[in-house]
Amino acid sequence: MELSALKIFLTVAHERSFSRAAAKVHRTQPAVSQAIRRLELELGEQLFDRSSKTGTLTEAGRMLQNYGQRLVRLAEETESTVRDLRDLRRGRVLVGANEAAVHTLLPVIARFRQRYPDIAIDVRRVPARQIAVEVQQGSLDFGALTFHPPEVGLLEVPVGSDELVLLVPPSHELASRRQVAMEDIASEAVIAHNDPSPARERVLRLFEDRHIPLRMVISLPSLDGIKRAVEMGLGVAVLPRRCALGEIARGHLVAVKVPELSSPRSIRFVFRKTGELSRAAMAFLELVRERAEEAKKTELAVR
Predict the structure, then answer these.
(1) 206: Cβ contacts below 8 Å, ≥ 6 apart
(2) Which helix (H) or strand (E) covers residue 85, if one does?
(3) What does the pLDDT read at residue 85?
(4) What is the spatial distance between Cα 91 and Cα 96, in angstroms, rounded to a whole number?
(5) Which residue pairs from 174-180 have beta carbons closer than 8 angstroms and sit at least 24 positions apart in sequence?
(6) Can you give the pTM of this predicted structure?
C-alpha cells in the first residue's frame, strides 16, 4: 500500500468529496479516483458507497480510515525522527570508561553539550580490559583506555597523557618533597581501589619485582572515596594525577612524583571504523579529534 494513495484516501474521506479532495492534494479528480480504485483493488474491498453522493465510507473504508490515520501519523513521526538524527537534534552516544578515565571525558562532554545539547551522552562504567571488546562488538561507540587494545578492527585517537602520582594530605611529611622513591612508600599505609585494572596490576608488579613491601590497608570501591580517605589522613594513594586535579588545586591534596611509577600514560579513545558510527557518534568523534589536536599543541608548548 502506497503512503501517497493512503493520504489521498484520507483526504477524500475527510472532505467527503472527490473534487474537493483533488483540489486539496493538487491532483486532478480522475487521478484521485484512480488512486482510490487502486487501493480498492489492492484491498479487495470497496471503500466508498458509490450510491451516495456525499462520499460515505463503507465499513472497510471506516476501518481503513482509522488505521490509515495512525499509519500516516507514525510515518510523519518517523520522518521527523530521522530528520532530527540527521540534523543532530536527537541521538545518543555510548562511551565505556573505567572510573579514572571519566575525568578525561568531561572536557569533551562539556564541549559536546554546548554544541549539541539535544544529544544524550551515556558513559558506562566498564572494566578496562572489557572496553575494547564491547566497542568491537558494537555495544559501545567509544572506549577510553590508557593502553593499546589487542582487539582487531579498532581505530584510536590519543587525547593526552597522564601519570601516576602519590597523593598525600598537605600535613603529611612527604607533602613537602618534590619526589619520593618507591622505598618511601613502603612504610606508608596505602589506600587502594578494589577494582582490578592494568594500572593497578602494573604498580603491584613493580613493587613485587623490586621486593619492596606495599601495605594496602584499605581498599575502597571509588576514587572519590580514596581521595576523601587520604584527605582524612587515613593513608596515601597512588592514583592518576588527572583524577585529583580539583583537590590538588584547592590544596586538599598534594601530588608527589614517584619517578619509577610516573612514566606518562597515553590516554586514547578507541572506536570502530567511522562508517559504522551513527551521526551523533561521528559528531562526538570530531570533537575528540579537536581535543586531541589541542592536547598535542599543549604538550609541544610545554616542551
Answers:
(1) 182, 260, 261
(2) helix 59-86
(3) 62
(4) 17
(5) 174/236, 174/256, 175/254, 175/256, 177/256, 178/256, 178/257, 179/256, 179/257, 179/258, 179/259, 180/256, 180/257, 180/258
(6) 0.65
pLDDT, tens digit (0-9, with 9 covering 90-100), for 76-107: 777 766 765 665 667 889 999 988 888 888 88
Q: What is the pLDDT of residue 86?
A: 67
**Residue 16, phi-psi category: left (phi > 0), alpha (psi -120 to 50), beta (remainder):** left
Largest CA distance in the chain: 101
The DSSP call for residue 107 is H
Q: Which residues of the chain have pLDDT under 50?
A: none
Q: Average pLDDT, whole number, for the chain?
A: 87
Residue 256, CA distances (Å) to 69, 133, 213, 249 in order: 69, 35, 19, 14
Element (H, E) at 267: strand 265-271
